[in-house]
Amino acid sequence: MLEYIDYLTGFAILTGFFLLGAFLHGLGAPIPGGVLGLILFFLALQAGLVKLKWVERVARLLLRHMVLLFVPLTVGLMEMGPLLSRQAVAITASLLVSVAAVVLTTGLLGSWLLPAEPQNETEPQNETAMEAAEASR
Q: pTM of the full predicted structure?
């Protein structure tokens, strides 16, 4: 019985943050409600307002069955087959451009935020190089 209460508590917390995000989006927040709820949930976890053990059990359950949550989306896409086939070139082009933009942005941001460590040219990098340096002396 206690196990069910853990599941219900975790589900209520997750649903509450989702609904809070949707409510704030409805008030005019420019971020989608689900994303806003996830951000608020993360901040609540970091602040200690929500304990991980309260939601961990239901999160594992949802992750274990996540594939089932995509079935309605897949069925909807299958029903829109004729429309998707007429727009295949535009969809493919937009997917390629968006993937390239994400890869480029991630790479540039990563190189900007994580500068390369300078390598010391005088120090050998491995034992073989050390042995070669000693042999040349």
A: 0.56
DSSP codes, 19-78: HHHHHHHHTT-SS-HHHHHHHHHHHHHHHTSS-HHHHHHHHHHHHHTHHHHTHHHHHHHH
Question: pLDDT digit string (tens) for 43-85?
Answer: 999 999 999 999 999 999 999 988 888 888 888 888 888 888 8
| Burial status of residue 54 (CB atoms within 10 A of its CB: 0-12, 13-18, 19 or more) | middle
- Distance CA(80)–CA(91), nearest Å, equals 13
